[in-house]
């Protein structure tokens, strides 16, 4: 899968506040599905759809031990987002620096 396809899936997954809250929670460490679902006023099947979206984007991994499914954050996927944002920030800083240089050097001294 191309890098931009992966980024598309990650941004779609992060486009929902419930999924962002799950990612935030998992930033503190792995958690069971029931722990993750507890604060949300929705049915477990609805919550599982959010987890499947996060898992298909690669943001989380899940494992099952007995009857407990545990989720963990895949920080490599977040690093892809961070790298993309850093590229965008650098590009726009270069453009604004060029604009600043153009504006300040092109003034008429009279």
UniProtKB/TrEMBL annotation:
Matches recorded under SUPFAM superfamilies: Winged helix' DNA-binding domain
Record InterPro entries: ArsR-like_HTH, HTH_ArsR_DNA-bd_dom, WH-like_DNA-bd_sf, WH_DNA-bd_sf
Domain HTH arsR-type: start-end pairs: 1-96
Any Pfam family hit: HTH_20
GO molecular function, one term: DNA-binding transcription factor activity
CDD domains: HTH_ARSR (cd00090)
Highest taxon, organism lineage: Bacteria
Stated name of the protein: ArsR family transcriptional regulator
Lineage, uppermost ranks: Bacteria, Bacillati, Actinomycetota, Actinomycetes, Glycomycetales
């Amino acid at each position: 899968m191309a890098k931009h396809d992966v980024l598309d899936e990650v941004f779609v997954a992060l486009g929902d506040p419930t999924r962002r809250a799950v990612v935030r929670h998992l930033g503190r460490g792995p958690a069971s599905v029931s722990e993750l679902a507890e604060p949300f006023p929705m049915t477990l099947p609805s919550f599982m759809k959010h987890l499947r979206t996060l898992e298909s984007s690669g943001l989380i991994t899940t494992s099952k031990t007995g009857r407990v499914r545990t989720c963990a954050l895949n920080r490599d996927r977040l690093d892809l987002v961070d790298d993309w944002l850093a590229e965008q920030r650098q590009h726009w800083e270069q453009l604004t620096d060029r604009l600043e240089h153009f504006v300040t050097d092109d003034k008429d001294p009279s």
